[in-house]
Amino acid sequence: MFENQIPPNSVMTCSGTRNVYIGRNKYGLGKVDQKREAFFLPCQGKEYWYKKYQVLTYDTKIYSEQIFDVKYKIDEAKILKNPSHTIHESTITDNQCSPVKNTVTFSTTSQVERSWNIKISTAMGVKTTISAQIPLITSIGVEFNLQTTFQYTKGTTQTESTTHSVNVECHVQPNNSCSVRTVGQKCEANIPFTARLTRIYRNGQTTWASITGTYNGVQISDVQCVVDRCEPNAKPC
Known about the structure:
With about 240 residues, the protein is an all-beta fold. The protein folds into 2 domains: about 1-55, no CATH class; about 60-230, Proaerolysin, chain A, domain 3 (Proaerolysin, Chain A, domain 3, Beta Complex), CATH 2.170.15. It has strands at about 1-5, 20-25, 30-35, 40-45, 45-50, 55, 60-70, 80, 85-95, 100-120, 125-130, 135-140, 140-145, 150, 160-170, 175-200, 205-225, 230. InterPro entries: Natterin_C.
């Protein structure tokens, strides 16, 4: 806390207004307006201002943080599988007087969302990385891919595109149309985990702590191809 000054590492409020910071005085927490050089304290529907205050700052002594040794509690996982829905649909039509055989390749792209919510504050303005396996929801449960390391920001969701490709061979009778669809399930996962948090300080000191959190993921799984019943589309040959 710095008294009556606003250093570069001051913590701004979430109001979206620039030059407004989190502060306090002997009466409680409030906001500091840099332009007005005053501290404002809300109380019973009113706002009081003071000239003496302290501004909240984040620690600049921390050089980096790393979250690792992530262990998922699969037995406590909550998996929600929504009903299957159509992702993509196509129609194969035979206008000839002889049967046709056609192979259709479906490529569908969907969004995958992931977030790791930990129950401890990470340092503001400090690079934080997390090393963990990525949970994958399948028809038989939860599987994991290889461990990967990426930058972590608390409260944000990672979004990436994934492509599913399915080949299906269709036999269509003369003067018929067949509808071919890819279907999939939207799955949501909430998986508790434990991990370790290491902090490296600028003086070379290293500390660590045990932490807990929850992994939240949304993805499309169990992608399959469905051929609906064919229907006549013209007079017989």
